[in-house]
Write a structure and sequence with these properties.
Blueprint (H helix, E strand, L loop, with lengths): L3 E5 L6 H14 L4 E5 L5 H11 L8 H25 L3 E5 L2 H11 L4 H12 L6 E6 L2 H8 L13 H17 L4 E5 L4 H14 L5
The structure holds thymidine-5'-diphosphate (TYD).
Length: 207
């Protein structure tokens, strides 16, 4: 869908920081952009997010998790993304359906096809026009996360899981090269920010 942009990457790549920096840039330069995030992003969707990420919910089965992400997605599209796009705004969303393909489909092993089928119902025609992928291997991402000692339910996963997630993203990048924009996130935070801004300008997403 034109004007719908998503940002993806493995945990620890600095995606949250980069999204905040980009938002700051867009505010300073008066861009017609709405920033949002998944899971969550609106009242009901944030409640679903809290259920998914609560470390006390350690008996949640993988399919339940996948359906909850899809439910939060439908609600968030309905409340935030679709109205903003209809008003002619650009929407930049921190994580979207690709996270479900790789985390639930490949990481949890539910299978890409099944998770895609489930999410096709949630997403309909609202597939992103462009998806910016912050490229950093899970090894480097783990090093960056080194200082964090508070972990949610998902971050307690093992390294094999993140390898599957990383490989899953690369499978998607190879399958949808026209949608994915790969940003090398190995450099400094400022370098990565500048790359994102420049690639967005090139595509007319921001001015
Ligand atoms: P969050 O704290 O937002 O992490 P980040 O800053 O890395 O985006 O937590 C989101 C977590 O949810 C993250 O580990 C990825 C996971 N996730 C899925 O497993 N499936 C999904 O569909 C989405 C949107 C996120």
């Amino acid at each position: 869908m034109k004007g719908f942009i998503t940002i993806e990457g493995c945990d620890g790549v600095g995606k949250t920081y980069q999204t905040a920096k980009l938002k700051e840039y867009c505010e300073k330069t008066n861009q017609n952009v709405v920033f949002t995030r998944e899971p969550g992003g609106s009242k009901v969707a944030e409640k679903i997010r809290n259920i998914i990420l609560d470390s006390e919910n350690d008996t949640m089965c993988d399919k339940c998790e996948a359906f909850l992400y899809a439910s939060a997605r439908i609600q968030h599209l309905n409340d935030i993304v679709i109205p903003a796009l209809k008003e002619g705004k650009t929407v930049i969303c921190d994580r979207f359906v690709d996270s479900s393909y790789v985390y639930q489909g490949l990481g949890r092993g539910l299978g890409y096809e099944d998770v895609k089928a489930l999410n096709d119902i949630a997403v309909g025609e609202y597939m992103p026009e462009y998806t910016f992928f912050l490229e950093l291997t899970p090894e480097l991402a783990f090093e960056r996360k080194g200082g964090n000692d508070v972990k949610d339910r998902l971050e307690i996963c093992d390294k094999d899981f993140y390898k599957k997630v990383y490989d899953g993203y690369h499978m998607l990048i190879d399958s949808y090269p026209e949608r994915f924009v790969v940003i090398d996130a190995k450099g400094s935070k400022t370098e990565t920010h500048e790359k994102i801004v420049s690639e967005m300008k090139k595509r007319g997403i921001i001015k």
